Amino acid sequence: GVRVTLIANTLRTPYSGMLPGLVAGHYTWDETHVDLQPLCKFGNHRVIHDECVGIDYENKRILLKSGRPSVKFDVASVDVGITPSAGEVDGADAHTVPVKPIGGFNARWEALMTRVIEHGVECQVCVVGGGAGGAELALSMRCRMRRELAKANLDENLVKFTLITRGEIMPTHAKSVRKTFLGVFAEHGVDVVENDGVMRAENGKLILQSGRAIESNETIWCTQAGAAKWLRDNTPLVLDDKGFIAVNPTLESTSHKNIFAAGDVANVLKHPRPKAGVFAVRQGPPLEKNLRRALLGEALVDFTPQSVFLGLITTGDKSAVLSYGKMSFGGLGPVGEKLWRWKDKIDRKWMKMYADLPDMMGGKKEDEASKIALAAGPETMAALRAVPMRCGGCGAKVGATVLSRVMKRLEPIPTNPNVEIGIDQPDDAAVVSTPPGMVSIQTVDYFRSFVDDPYIFGQVAAVHALGDCWAMGADPHAALAIASVPYGLEAQVEETLYQMMAGACSVLREAGCALAGGHSCEGAEL
Ligand SMILES: Cc1cc2nc3c(=O)[nH]c(=O)nc-3n(C[C@H](O)[C@H](O)[C@H](O)COP(=O)(O)OP(=O)(O)OC[C@H]3O[C@@H](n4cnc5c(N)ncnc54)[C@H](O)[C@@H]3O)c2cc1C
């Protein structure tokens, strides 16, 4: 089969469509972030929480920041998005806050609100970048700040907001969108500076290309995307002039076979499009199909992205503007409010798909579902659909009640007089004394099941482990068992674990060796 591994530098990834709503206080952190761990567990994918810092194409390995061993691949897809390109402006790294990663930005934003409310002092916030993201962000921050100030009985106008952009605002949308937003900014008292980019950032102020200086106590950087430096420094991939990965319409690198890229980090040379989530999302299904085709050695298929896209751009409060090609409407007022409610519904539905994972099976035939779930039988399939994802926070341990029931069923558990603290007095570790004049021999064995009968497998595993002791001329006194059983209904997990441990105990008992403790978990296989 194929092992899919996701390497991600964050395990809670934001849904950008809802980020302005998070900043405005309409949504919580959880409502706007996808938890990758249960998602990957559901798809039976391995997750590595680390940061990719390079690709060794010759040896087909992904290099990781933490220094742990690199990860082997046959086919890889690089989907790392953008990095804020503040670095090219003098002082921006030191004196501005990039909007991505959102965790860092949000913490700064919350701290700013607390500071303003605690001290009640006037302050000026500048957002640099007049695309949809920057515009939404400026309006959302203003909306939230005013609400928090009002709650604290402070002047709602204490904090002033300014949007600064190199060209005109909303450059990738119709002219009418710009006009509507200029009206919204004017109505909300947000200053807009167009056609005057930031040349230098200093402590407390920004110097623009025209030479104009603007006071700024907090500057948020939300400009055109830049690409990660490691792509240039540490991969052999051909990049475009901005450092993004050049790909064919198949989403495969133009220079390296079996390396794919999608989303903001990719530049489909034949179909250039703005960096936007709507395009990234649409590339998902063709990417998945071509990854499969590459693995099966089949011909790849071209993908042509849509040329116009629907944008629902929010105005901070609960209203929005619809932008589609040359058409736009909405803004402040009843139509805009209706559009916001529509967007809210779409966004919540989208996020529900990632939280309510069994629903992802909806409409699928059973034989299309995970082979592992199917192998566990129709009862498990039903349970998987009915219950939320199993908890992975505790390392997918077998539940305590299941374990204690299994232990009860195993009684009498084999013992040995040298075990001071064992399974009969459960603690974090076992205590075993070594008789005077003797030494302690330790060994560990672990392997996958090659038989279907868990009882036989338990016996084989115990004999195999004891064999190493006997080979050393040692008398086995105590054993720790590490047992992994396939995911399933509690009853099935319990039965499999019981059968396997019963087999092991039968061998240990005969050898006079205590079962002193161990660890059990649920996994993909026995
Ligand atoms: C405030 C804001 C609002 C936006 N609103 C919209 C909108 O309403 N509609 C829209 O279409 N677009 C919107 N966008 C744009 C949208 O966010 C992006 O186009 C979209 O997220 C791109 O998806 P992606 O998968 O390519 O990258 P990302 O969503 O950025 O995902 C990349 C992932 O890779 C991880 N990563 C990065 N580097 C590494 C590494 N080296 N190793 C491992 N993992 C790594 C990141 O943590 C992240 O989880 C908005 C952007 C902003 C800033």
From TrEMBL:
Keywords: ATP-binding, FAD, Flavoprotein, Nucleotide-binding, Oxidoreductase. Pfam families: AIRS, Pyr_redox_2. GO terms for molecular function: ATP binding; NAD(P)H dehydrogenase (quinone) activity. It comes from the Eukaryota. GO terms for biological process: aerobic electron transport chain. Residues 1-284 form the FAD/NAD(P)-binding domain. InterPro entries: FAD/NAD-bd_sf (IPR036188), FAD/NAD-binding_dom (IPR023753), NADH-Q_oxidoreductase (IPR051169), PurM-like_N (IPR016188), PurM-like_N_sf (IPR036921), Pyridine_nucleo_diS_OxRdtase_N (IPR017584), SPS/SelD (IPR004536). Gene3D superfamilies: 3.50.50.100, PurM-like, N-terminal domain. Its cofactor is FAD. Residues 427-522 form the PurM-like N-terminal domain. The keyword Membrane does not apply. The keyword ATP-binding applies. NCBIfam families: Nterm_to_SelD, selD. PANTHER family: APOPTOSIS-INDUCING FACTOR 1 (PTHR42913), SLR1591 PROTEIN (PTHR42913:SF9). This is Selenide, water dikinase.
